[in-house]
Amino acid sequence: MSNVPDAFISEIESIVGAAGLVTDPERMAGYLTDWRKAYRGEAALVVRPANTGEVASVVRLCNRYEVALVPQGGNTGMCGGSIPDASGTQVVLSLTRMARIREVDTANETITVEAGVILQTLQDAAQQAGRLFPLSLGAEGSCTVGGNLATNAGGTAVLRYGNMRDLTLGLEVVLPDGRIWNGLRGLRKDNTGYDLKHLFIGSEGTLGIITAAVLKLYPAVRSVTTAWVALPSAEAAVELIGLVRGLCGDRLTGFELMSRQSVEFVLRHAAGCNDPFGEAHPWYVLIELSDTQPDASLNDLLETGIGQALERGWVTDAVLAGNQAQVAALWAMREGISEAQNHEGPSLKHDISVPVSLISEFVRTTDARLLEQFPGVRIVAYGHVGDGNLHYNISKPVGSQDEAFKAQKAAITQVIYDATARFHGSISAEHGIGQAKREAAGHYKDPLELQLMRALKTTFDPKGLMNPGKLVQ
Ligand code: FAD
Ligand code: MLT
Ligand code: ZN
After folding, report:
1. 341 lines ligand 2 (CB under 6 A)
2. Nearest ligand 2 atom to alpha carbon 334
3. Could you tell me the distance, in angstroms and rounded to a whole number, from the CA of residue 384 to the centre of ligand 2?
4. Closest-lying ligand to the alpha carbon of 84?
5. pLDDT (tens digit per residue) in 217-272
6. Ligand 1 atom 18: the closest Cα is on which residue?
């Protein structure tokens, strides 16, 4: 027995056909829980439209029946944004059948893709055209362009190319009443008023459904150097990034910081990962340089930088990858942290940012405060130093009860978010708000900003049918 009228279901089926409708509980299950298995919901049904016209018709129907919609892409989000609530009355709208590359325009350096295209497929299409699409993140094999846009995804190349917002020129969006906004413009200059695409980027499905996008392409990379570097402190990482950036400029395309605890989890749980050094070090960075020239002497450049850092005591050991397999192995250590932490019992994720200059002070003072108030918690800090973005995650103490740790969740998170606020930071650098941080955003975000966001939400979605309960209260 469904929680929506039978007539609604048969009308949906007449729009998308049997191939676009999922009502069988077993087949629906994968759409109702997230990658971390941290959130679970119920849904009246899952609808999988094949094109923009079908999305518009489904949204119009939901508006008429006042049925709430939860847009979903690859379901890899970290904040429960793509998971319906527990009522069983919401409809999950999956974009995964909309997976066409519509156009590659190498003269305009753009690619036009549908929302359900997997990020890796987009990267491959760019490569086949002799170009680079630079957004890169651990979930790239399963996350979609629509989800990347709706969360304004970041990843490991933001320090050079920017986040998804910076990579986007135009959008096609189905509005909450079913109208289609065709903003698929490939323009780098357009000063004709408010830039509406930026309202939808990062809106987490609360203002409309993104169905396609025009994205920027960049020159293909033809040489890459990757190093794994040991450091005595987080402070040394901030010194080191300044040094390497000064030496290499835009050739610095990756600078990922990892605490020893993060690396230990990977070594313990990720098959085939080995510590490149004989002894443990407190911190590590993975550095990547790249260039559009085939013989850019990047090894020499990076060795010079690391040599200078060794002399200054900012680096204690380093290895350069000697071949493609070693490059992949180093990135696997970095990208494997999230998955490895899932094997260590319940964890709390905090995706914070502070000014780069304050990272080490943030880590030093927050580590001390946490360990004093919650002895034994394991601080799993890693992230994108060039963006001031730390994944400051906490795993339960060894041997403690899951329930006891979960009971401390609010208090632990408060210590971290209060520190973030003191350091003029953000409680969500790249993962968004979803359902996980909605209350915290209500507390830590500027009240005027919240008021303006609510006003926008009401203007776009007066019936409150687009991903209710997420992002804005
Ligand atoms: P989903 O999880 O399906 O949805 C995310 C949100 O977007 C939801 O609110 C949903 O309602 C909305 N949405 C989805 N599609 C649409 C659409 N077409 N229109 C409107 N709204 C829509 N994120 C980073 O920023 N940087 C990282 O480095 C990073 N690394 C990750 C590594 C791993 C291993 C994992 C599992 C996740 C990582 N993420 C990272 C999280 C990240 O947010 C996602 O991977 C990705 O951007 C979400 O895409 P998705 O298609 O899975 O979206
Ligand atoms: C990452 O950088 O690995 C991610 O954003 C995912 C995570 O928080 O673990
Ligand atoms: Zn990240």
Report:
1. no
2. 3
3. 9
4. 1
5. 999 999 999 999 999 999 999 999 999 999 999 999 999 999 999 999 999 999 98
6. 146
Q: How far apart are CA 273 and CA 243, in angstroms?
A: 29
Check if 176 has its Cβ closer than 6 Å to any atom of ligand 1. no
Mean pLDDT of 62-86: 98
Entry pTM = 0.97
- 425 Cβ below 6 A of ligand 1: no
Confidence of residue 207 (pLDDT cuts 50, 70, 90): very high
Return the structure tokens found at 235. Answer: 């402070």
Summarised one tens digit per residue, pLDDT across range 146-180 is: 999 999 999 999 999 999 999 999 999 999 999 99
For the segment 49-71, the average pLDDT, to the nearest whole number, is 98
Which residue among 136, 338, 390, 428 is best mutated to probe the pocket of ligand 2, counting the most ligand atoms within 8 A of its Cβ?
338
Please report which confidence band the pLDDT of residue 1 belongs to, taking 50, 70 and 90 as the band edges.
low
Amino acid code (one letter) for 61? L
Sorted by sequence, the CB contacts under 8 Å of residue 358 that are 6+ apart come out as 388, 423, 424, 425
**Mean pLDDT computed over 359-368:** 97
pLDDT 10s digits, 410-466: 999 999 999 999 999 999 999 999 999 999 999 999 999 999 999 999 999 999 999
Beta pairing class for 101-105 and 91-94: unpaired
- Is the beta carbon of 338 within 6 A of some atom in ligand 2? yes
